[in-house]
Structure formats: C-alpha cells, structure tokens
Amino acid sequence: MRDLQAPRPRVSRETRLLFVTIACAIAALWVLGRLRFPERASTSPVPAVLAPLALPSSFDDLAGAVTQFASGLAASTVGVAIVDPGGDPGNARVVQGLRWRDDLTVVVGAGRAGERPRFRQPAELLAYDPATSLAVARLPGAPAVPLATWDGRRVDTPRYFVSSDRVGMRVTWRPVFVGGFSAVASPRWQGEIWEVPARTDLTPGAFLFTLDGQWAGATVEHRGRVAVVLPALLRAHAEDLLRAQRPDPAGLGIDVTPLSPGLSAATGREGGVIVSHVDPRGPAAGLVLVGDVIDAVGPVAVGGIDDWRAIASRLAPRQAIDLHVHRQGMRLAVPVVAVTAPAVPVSPDLGVALRDVPGTGSTVTRVAPLTAAARAGLQAGDVVTLFGDVAAPRPRQILRAWASAPGGRPLVVAITRNGTHLMLAVER
C-alpha cells in the first residue's frame, strides 16, 4: 500500500519576489539609518530605521521653539510686585514687565480702578497713565537686550505666537494660536490696536512674540475683548509719559453713565455714553443736556464708558473740544471748553465728591485715587443709599459720619450701581 502524502503548497514566484523586495528594503533602510544617525544605538532594526526617518511631531517642534525662545528672552521679561493701596507689602500682586531700556521697564495693566500703583522695591514707579494703566518703572538689573519687532505683515493669516505668563515672580512662556487680527481705533491708546478673535487664549497684561523671537506687542483689554498694542505705539506712549509735565486736572462739568440695554433701546443708540448730570456752573451748562448721548469727542469715537474716561482724563484747562451728541433724533456738534477741575470737596482720606439726590442719598461724582473710597471700590456714578447708620444720606451727613467714625472700624456702605444693589465696607 502506497503512502499518501499531501502535496506541498507552492509559493508563487511573484510572492517570493515580494518577500525578497521587502527584506531588501528593510536592510537598505537600516543601513541608511545607521549611516545617517550613527550615534543612535538600537537592538531592533525596524524601529531604529523608521523612527529616525519619520517626520518629527509639529508639537515637538513647537515645544522646542518655545524652549529656545524663552532662553533668549530671560533677561528681557521680569515679574514686578505691586502693593495695593493700604495693603500689606508682603501680599503684593505680581504683574509682568518688559525691559524697555537698560534700567526701564514697561508694565501693562499696572493699576486698578484708576489708582496709581505702588511698586515694591527694587522697582520704582516713574510715570503712570490711568487711562491705559501703562506704567514705566526703573528696575535695576542686567542690560536690556535689543528686541526685534514684528513687521505685522499678513495679520489676517492664522499663526502661532508665544505669550508671556508667570509663575510667582518668574515669567514663563506658552504658545498661543491666533486666527487673525482686526485693526480698531482706540481712544485710550490714541491710535490703532489689533483686536483678536473672542476665543483666543490670550489674557490682558502679557507680552506677545512670534516664534522666532520678534516682539509683536502687549495684550490689553478693549471693550470686553483682548487686543494687542503694537510695539511702536507702546514705546511712543511710554516716551510721552516720561516727558509729560502733568497739567492740572480739567473737566467739563458733566457726569455720564454707560448705556444699559434699556437705555440703548430708549435712545436708539448702541455706542456711547449718556449724560446723567450737568453742573449748572460748569462750562457745559446750557450746551449739553441730561439725556444727551455722546458718541464722539472730535474725531475720536466713544464706544463706552472706558473710552469716555480715557478722553476725560487727558483734558487740559482751556482745551476746546467738540462733543458729538444725539438729542431727539438729531446729531449735534457741541463746542465746550474744559476748565480746571475743582478739588475734591471732602475729607482727603475719604476721597469722594458727592451730589445730593433728595430722598435717595448721594451720587458719587468723583473718586480720588489712593483714598479710602477708592480702596473700598466706590466708583463715579454710584448712588450711596446708606452710609454707616444713616439711610439716604446727604453729602454733609456722609462727611459727618466719616469724621466721627472710630479708627480701625469699617463703615457699611450701601450703593446702587447700574441698577444693581451692592454693599461695601469703607475704613481708614
């Protein structure tokens, strides 16, 4: 009986050629990898061949660029400690500064509520603009490294930037994707700034650079959004602050409030501020009326209360301006000449100017910086409905209550602000 054996499966010639080709390709790649990267040891030829020849991750490239970038700018960015008025120097808040010249540092977002900041040593405040919260400080240290500036070409092109951040007093860096910029006019900065898309991961008070280390500007708050102030505008503003001789404060004798949704619907205006009071002895008496909506001062648009405060803070005595107002469906140009603002007619450590609102209380018309009122958070336009134990206090009652208040004991203050009722504590 014959042994029956199963026939052996034949491997086709094409299959054998395919296996030989694969083996030769792997061997060639392995030799190429060993020649190109001789320093890389490997026990398995396949990963060693493929890994060196694979394209590196774009995120690895980005991390490497940020690391190299940070080492080159370590001497140009610093943390600056600011002590809040009346606060403990040991509990200072830290902001970011950029060495602008050898011993000069610029800080964006230095102040709060218009208060002049107080830097902790060794930083020394030289100049401050309450309209923009830009400060120039003297800060000893290593010589400043000259910064190349970005030319800003193709601002509508999406790209990665590097934004400064901080951990304690140390400035760190992180990549940020920006989908594009939109140029807008800023009354506060008196020039053109770049607004970024709403969802961009940028915060005000930082400095922005391209991936190759060119300075693109500083981030600021602009009408509830984040915008970038270009280096040329920032430098010019800092230079002006250092050269400026501060004139006496000036005013127009009018109070304004923001346009709430209800006021916008009633007036038909979406931008600007509405006049809430006109001093009968002021320069605007008989020219500006309560209820007028101011949407521009000269050629400068007033988008909201921040724009108005910036313009008002720069007025000089005897300066002539045109207020563009909307009144009963008409747009008028009203010429007004600013006059020297009167001194705050209250105790200087309280620091508010008040106007009587019969039956309700007193309206705050001015808040002096670095005073008890400023520390408590009072703002112009607030209506004080309770001060200590006095309900619906008139200005003189507030002064008397403040003068008789025992030291070290806060007074409860109730206010109404834009239709919202708030409670504050004011203390010496």
Descriptive account of the structure:
The protein is of the alpha+beta class and 428 residues long. It is built from eight helices and 27 strands. Helix 1 crosses helix 2. It is elongated and about 105 Å long. About 2% of the residues have low confidence.
Search tags:
428 residues; 7-stranded antiparallel β-sheet; 4 domains; Pdz3 Domain; elongated; alpha+beta; 8 helices; Thrombin, subunit H; 6-stranded antiparallel β-sheet
Classify the fold: give the CATH topology of the largest domain. Answer: Thrombin, subunit H
How much of the polypeptide forms β-strand, as a percent range?
35-45%
What does the main sheet amount to?
7 strands, antiparallel
* Poorly predicted runs: 48-57
CATH class placement of the largest domain? Mainly Beta
Under the CATH scheme, which architecture of the largest domain would be assigned? Answer: Beta Barrel
The number of distinct structural domains comes to 4
Average pLDDT reading: 79
Q: What would you call the structural class?
A: alpha+beta
The CA-CA distance between the termini, in Å, is: 120 Å
